[in-house]
Amino acid sequence: MKEAADAYMTLARALExxxxxxxxxxxxxxxxxxVIALVIEILQPNEREDLKPDIQNTAVGEIRAQYLPSExxxxxxxxxxxxxxxxxxxxxxxxxxxxxxxxxx
Length: 105
Known about the structure:
By secondary structure, the chain is mainly α. The chain is built from 4 helices and no strands.
């Protein structure tokens, strides 16, 4: 969560630089990951073996392997991730759990 916010704040600050306005930027870890691998990365450290993905393979016209390269980000914005994806996921999950446990939410 902090990683994405930092990337977008870097982009916002760079909008005054020549060559940045009008560009499209993909923010990511530069490593393709399947949905099932991501689900496993979320479930295992949170000890949720009780949850099992329901893979139906019924989507029509869906791209099987989606990946957006983000090579423009380090070169044009001088930004790179500082967390590993696994750590970012866990921090986001922990925040969500705390948020949902707070009174009045």
